[in-house]
Design goal:
Blueprint (H helix, E strand, L loop, with lengths): L4 H10 L4 E6 L11 E7 L2 E8 L7 E5 L9 E3 L7 E7 L7 E5 L2 E4 L1
The structure holds zinc ion.
Length: about 110
């Protein structure tokens, strides 16, 4: 299910920020809350980020943070502040959601 554009715009401005959750190890939890961005950290290194798709389709998105893997994303946070991801997330399958995560906010493209 996709939310209408006006709703997503409104949600973008007023919706809750995603909070960063650090997961010990390289596997994200089975069930992901829509309010969080999960980062798998093993031995001080960020492996991947996981989140439930913000469009509401319920799919689990996994983004690699390791530089050696392509494609990979850069996570910006100091562990306390809301997370940002670079570049944008663009699903080539399923709901084809395309968005940025900036300061914990979902910004639709
Ligand atoms: Zn989706």
């Amino acid at each position: 299910m996709k939310f209408p554009f006006w709703f997503r715009k409104l949600w973008q401005r007023h919706g809750p920020k995603r909070k960063l959750i650090i997961v010990d190890g390289d596997t994200p939890p089975e069930t992901l809350s829509t309010r969080h961005l999960y980062v798998c950290r093993d031995e001080g290194e960020n492996w991947s980020a996981a989140m439930s798709c913000p469009c509401g389709c319920g799919d689990k998105l996994e983004l690699m943070l390791l530089k050696e893997v392509k494609p990979n994303w850069t996570l910006k946070t100091d562990d306390q502040s809301p997370p940002s991801l670079h570049p944008s997330v663009w699903r080539k399958s399923g709901c084809e959601a395309h968005f940025w995560l900036r300061d914990g906010h979902i910004q639709w493209c």
